Amino acid sequence: MQRELANTFKFSFVLLSMVSCVMPLLRSEAKSESEQKAPALKGAVAKGIAPPIRFRAKLTASIDGAIAKPGDPVYAELLDTIMMPNGTYAGVGSLVTGEILDIEKSRKLLKADFSPKHWRNANGMLAMKITKICGKEMLVDVIPAPRTRIERKDKKSVPLSIDKRGEVSINYNAPAYTAANVAISGASFAAGPVGWIVSPVVGGIAGGVDPTFAYGRPVTEADGHAHVKGCIKGVVGGLPGGFIITGLTNKGLDVSLIPGDVITFQERGQEKVD
């Protein structure tokens, strides 16, 4: 009996020793598996609660629309602290990088008059997207926020805005100026035989008051004596066949940005919130 109890005690002791050795290994494996799953789970949860990406960024390098091409890099600095789709945060001052997706150079006004793409707008266009923030790849498409304006560092620079497609464009209300041209043509027609006098006079007055109307684009500092030239261009444009002359002499502007310009970006398809 004593021998059987001793053997049982020995067997229990060996079994307990084996269990005590195996359990730490099992806990270690379980912990390792848990640690592997935790980041993925945390990322998934964070991705579910992360708000849509929207932030302001200040350019740190120039973009010259006259020579830029698709694939060229875009460099900027984050102006807002944001939550990334993976649940991490990017703070103010973080490096923002992107690339140019597409670019359209400026063209003659006459060419724009007969082009279905950006009809009557001879100014350039530029499309871009953000690819990385803090060196981390973006998991969603981030583009300039549609229907927002770019804050220019140089207040005398040509005003830029983002159109409904998310493209950077020059502020020029082509439909409004087209309507003005139609109104002038209508007045000329209604005037009968003296219409050929009325149209140049009305066009000259309109071009003198608003040179943008005569130039077919915003006026810059390089356009010296813009009101005088606008008046002359308006007179020429009002003459029979004058639209051909102005169409061949007037050219739009390229989209160019400089360090310090501020652009608002957001996820593609996100509704405008301001």
Order of helices and strands: HEEEEEHEEEEHHHHHE
Shape: elongated
Terminal-residue CA separation: 89 Å
Give the CATH topology of the largest domain. Lipocalin
Average per-residue pLDDT, rounded, comes to 78
Number of strands: 10
User: Domains counted in the coordinates: how many?
Assistant: 2
Q: What low-confidence regions span 5 or more consecutive residues with pLDDT below 50?
A: 1-48
Helix content: 40-55%
Q: Biggest sheet, in brief?
A: 6 strands, antiparallel, barrel
Q: Per CATH, which architecture of the largest domain?
A: Beta Barrel
Give the structural class: alpha+beta
| Order of the strands making up the biggest sheet | 1-2-5-6-7-10
Individual helix count: 7
Overview of the structural elements:
It is a single chain. This protein is an alpha+beta fold and 274 residues long. The protein folds into two domains: 54-107 and 121-172 and 255-267, Lipocalin (Beta Barrel), CATH 2.40.128; 174-215 and 218-249, no CATH class. The chain has helices at 2-49, 109-113, 174-190, 195-209, 211-215, 226-238, 242-249; strands spanning 54-59, 73-78, 82-83, 89-90, 95-104, 125-133, 136-144, 160-162, 168-170, 262-267. The protein has a six-stranded antiparallel beta barrel. Strands 3-4 form a two-stranded antiparallel ribbon. A hairpin with a 2-residue loop joins β6 (125-133) and β7 (136-144). α3 (174-190) runs antiparallel to α4 and α6 runs antiparallel to α7 (242-249). Mean pLDDT is 78; it is low at 1-48.
